Amino acid sequence: MCEGIFHYLCFEMSIDAIIVTLTFSCCAIAHFVGMCLMGILAYHRVQYLSLAWMLAIFFAVISVVAVFGQEVAAGSPGILNPYMLLMLVVGTYLQSIYALGIAMPGYLQWGRMIKYASPIVVLAIAYVLAMHSSGLLTKVYSFGELFSKALSLELVLRFLALLLGLAYVLNIVFLPKQLAYKSNIPALLLAYTVVLILSVILYLYTALNYTPVLLCAYIVVFTLLNFFWVCHTMETLMQKMPHPEIVLEPVEGKVTDAAAALMSDEDKRQSDFNEQNHSRYMRLQLWMQQNKSEWTANGFTRDRLCEATGINRQLMLQCLRSQGHNNVHEYITAYRVAELKRMVLRGEVSSLTDCVSAGFGSVKTARLCFERIEGGSLDDFLRLNARGES
Asked: How far apart are CA 263 and CA 365, in angstroms?
């Protein structure tokens, strides 16, 4: 069977057809993987169900196109083909609703989603009626034809479809501003919007100067944009995972001589290795507990911690990772965040400008570190817990 598929790809299909088939197949697989990951999360949290459905829709459409790779490569859709524009509008609609949070949990938001999609429905009905009156689908193969027929109803509707697709993309930024004037747009969402606009421009260029390679380039960018939400979701979940607690624990008892006698040499080496790591970690914990004035200073670094504790970089990283920390910088940051929370709860810190007293170089750094360690906003924590001055 595999040999037959290989023979078909090499001898029955053109190079362009092979490129289209392989590109769309790989992109379909990527959407399938994302769909499965989000499906697993959606089984436990309904908030991920909309993303799983969107990836499933894209997977189904791209898979169908991959089957017709030969026809897609040999096709001549013409300039601003209505079916290509339909895919653009529907694609941007789906890519924007998740970014805007209009999608589910969403059994309760179907009304909002349908209302948001109503321009597509109206435009599609108008186009079908316009095409029905002429009886034929108008295809344009040169810019001269495009300009000569630019005022025809069918071409006007195509331009409106193009503008509608751009409007859905721009709404990612502008719609929140309309609902709340002072709404903050995250940097990642702005970057996503910029890349999405660039992908629409690429698709428009493909619709004006169609080649199979350009279409493949667009579908790769399209897939990366959709997979961004999968990666962002996984990153958000990892950030919410609990970090190792910053507490001083007593050193556990050593292995008894009787138990050690029953151990193999490899077990003994492993036990010694773990015990040494734990011992270094407890030495590090004790120093951090007793020298708060050192690490709450902004200039305190990993090198100063190594010098103060007498543990070199490699052994320090090794002992910290044995206890669940990623690196030395994260360990110091976790202590500073814990100290900042304590200071807020005790009334020693009541505003953002006071946050630098916990060792952070700036308010921005304090915000970023707090969100990374705690998984929540420093501003919200201050608002809920800060004590007003008497």
From this structure: 48
Structure tokens at 285: 């914990």
As a 3-state breakdown, the chain gives helix, strand, coil percent values, each rounded to 5, of 75, 0, 25
For residues 324-363, b (16+ Cβ closer than 10 Å) or e, as one string?
Answer: ebeebebbbbbbbbbbbbebbeeeebeebebbbebbbeeb
pLDDT tens digits, the chain, 390 residues: what are they? Answer: 455 545 545 555 678 888 888 999 999 999 999 999 988 988 877 778 878 888 998 999 899 888 887 877 776 666 677 777 778 888 888 888 777 665 444 444 567 777 778 888 887 787 777 766 655 566 665 666 566 666 666 677 777 887 888 888 777 777 665 554 555 666 777 788 888 888 888 888 887 788 888 889 989 999 998 888 888 888 777 766 655 555 534 444 444 444 444 444 444 454 466 788 888 888 888 888 888 888 888 888 888 888 888 888 888 888 888 777 788 888 888 888 888 888 888 888 888 888 888 888 888 888 888 888 887 788 888 888 776 543
CA distance 372 to 215: 39
Angle between helices 313-322 and 302-309 (to 10 degrees): 90
Q: Are 80 and 208 in contact (CB under 8 A)?
A: yes
Output the six-digit token pair for 160.
């409106």
C-beta atoms surrounding 239 within 10 Å: 14
- Return all residues near 306 (Cβ < 8 A) that are at least 6 apart: 312, 313, 316, 328
Place of tokens 């009156």: 133
State how far the alpha carbon of 13 is from the alpha carbons of 42, 69, 214, in Å. Answer: 40, 9, 18
What pTM, to 2 d.p., does this model score?
A: 0.58
Cα(204)–Cα(138) distance, integer angstroms: 18
* Residue 67 contacts residue 8 (beta carbons within 8 Å): no
In the three-class reduction of DSSP (H, G, I as helix; E, B as strand; rest coil), residue 290 is classed as helix
Radius of gyration of the chain (CA): 29
Burial class (CB in 10 A: 0-12, 13-18, 19+), 188: exposed
How far is the C-alpha of 39 from the C-alpha of 19, rounded, in Å? 30
